[in-house]
Amino acid sequence: MFANGYVGSTEDSQRIRKLDKQRGEQRKKFEELQEKKRREAAGLRQFGSSRSEAYEAAFKNETVGLVTREEFLEKRNTIQDRLAEDELRERLEAEATAAAEKERRKKEKEKKKAKAKLSFAADVMEAPEAAEAAAAPAAKRPRFSKLGKDPGVQTAFLPDKDREAQEEELKRRLRAEWVQQQEAIKNETLEIVYSYWDGSGHRRKVTVRKGDSIGVFLKAVREQLAPQFRELRAVSVDNMMYIKEDLILPHHHTFYELIVNKARGKSGPLFDFGVKDDIRMLGDASMESQDVHAGKIVERHWYERNKHIFPASRWEIFDPEADYGDKYTIKG
Q1: In this structure, what are the phi and psi dihedrals at residue 203, rounded to the nearest 5 degrees?
Q2: What is the pTM of this model?
């Protein structure tokens, strides 16, 4: 039983004594730490005030006894000036020391950086060559991008950035030249002989560009024929058809495509638009000659009424993938 009236087991009492002992040790350490801090603070205050206290004591010694007001003020100003000079000198010395330390660190950093830039090749060179290489600027050292390559070995199959860049530049230049040439061809003029067919033929000529489409060609034809054929004035281009070599050419195809691809129809070439005669009126229709007939211009509603009658019964829509040349041979 404890004096404070606590009643418990022996283990509890031992644990309580142990905790009390730990608290006492912690309290003692805390008090020692506080005492140490007070001593350090007192020492710092004494260190900071030692100079001013020394000057104050010297001032008191110099002003012992009766002195005039002017002498008192002069001595006071002298002591203050001396104290200010000492503080300024100490501050300048501290700044100079800090600047010197900063410069020293900067030089050490530059020295380490320069050492890291040294190449492995400089380490294996002989002493005179190493000295010369170290004295020369790094920017003037020769670069050996293909050092150790045998010029006698066939390396055309290996990747080469320089060669690939030259090939790409050549391809780009040739592609640009080809595109320019094709644009020049498309801008060339083309004189087309056609026959407006309304049951009988009315042959005319019109000039277009090779790059123009069949739709543009039919618009030029309508403008040319409208003054003479009044029924065409109210007809749109979409209701007009162009038939060449028994093939109906869609409006989106261009003459450039027909010429470049050397397209062929059922009875002759589609890429020749000169003045020709109908081979069916002259001889064997299975034999192609240079004297082929001109293309026909008809209205769509005329074709719908007469597509079961010759010659409209032979017409079909042009298919670029189809081969129409196997039905006839070329004479000569």
Answers
A1: -80, 135
A2: 0.45
3-state secondary structure of 163: helix
pLDDT at 62: 66
In 76-212, which ranges are E strands? 189-197, 201-209
Percent of the chain with pLDDT over 90: 4
- Averaged pLDDT for residues 296-322: 86
Residue range 202-211: mean pLDDT, rounded: 88
| Ranges of each domain in the chain | 184-330
* Integer Cα distance of 320 and 190 in angstroms: 21
Dihedral of alpha carbons 254, 291, 220, 234, sign: negative
Query: Is the domain covering 184-330 a CATH 3.10.20.90 domain?
Result: yes
Do residues 312 and 303 lie in contact, with contact meaning Cβ atoms separated by under 8 Å?
A: yes
Q: CB–CB of 279/267 below 8 Å?
A: yes
Alpha-carbon dihedral angle through residues 246, 248, 252, 258, given to the nearest 10 degrees = -10
Q: Which residues pair with 329 in a beta bridge?
A: 287
Spatial CA neighbour of 266 closest among 197, 211, 195, 326? 326
